[in-house]
């Protein structure tokens, strides 16, 4: 009488128990690498209400943010006063606006 193991061996040419052992070993290696190289979740500092205009206020806000968050290792997320946008694009816009204002001085 044929059992599942014999059918699997006949169809694949390999022992299914051996394949399961190999699969378990691969999963263990993957888990080990994930543990070894995991650096954690990136934390964010959120700053709301940055004033975009006039430009003097933008620079003033940027200086204040830099002084308060100087020791932080978290990523900065900025939202401008009176605007609904948020996220990485708005934060890049903040950096661009600050750098353009500094270059114009």
Give an account of the 3D structure.
This protein has 105 residues and is α+β, with helices and mostly antiparallel strands. The protein is 59% helix and 12% strand. It contains four helices and two strands. The chain has helices spanning 4-12, 16-37, 55-68, 88-104, and strands at residues 44-50, 75-80. A two-stranded parallel sheet has the order 1-2. Helix 3 packs across helix 4. It is rod-shaped and about 85 Å long. The N and C termini lie far apart (89 Å).
Structure annotation, total helices = 4
Oligomer: single chain
Order of helices and strands: HHEHEH
Class inferred from helices and paired strands: alpha+beta
Distance between the termini: 89 Å
Biggest sheet character: 2 strands, parallel
Which helices and strands appear, and what pairs or packs with what?
Layout: H1 4-12, H2 16-37, E1 44-50, H3 55-68, E2 75-80, H4 88-104
Parallel strand pairs: 1-2
Q: Can you give keywords for this protein?
A:
about 100 residues; alpha+beta; 2 strands; about 10% strand; two-stranded parallel ribbon; 4 helices
Describe, in short, the structure shown.
The protein has 105 residues and is α+β, with helices and mostly antiparallel strands. The chain contains 4 helices and 2 strands, in the order ααβαβα. It has helices spanning 4-12, 16-37, 55-68, 88-104, and strands spanning 44-50, 75-80.
């Amino acid at each position: 009488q044929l059992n599942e193991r014999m059918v699997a061996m006949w169809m694949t040419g390999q022992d299914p128990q051996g394949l399961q052992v190999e699969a378990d070993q691969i999963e263990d290696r993957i888990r080990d690498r994930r543990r070894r190289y995991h650096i954690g979740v990136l934390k964010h500092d959120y700053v709301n209400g940055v004033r975009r205009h006039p430009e003097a206020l933008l620079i003033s806000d940027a200086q204040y943010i830099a002084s308060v968050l100087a020791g932080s290792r978290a990523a900065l997320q900025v939202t401008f006063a009176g605007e609904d946008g948020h996220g990485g694009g708005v934060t890049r816009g903040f950096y661009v606006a600050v750098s353009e204002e500094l270059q114009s001085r």
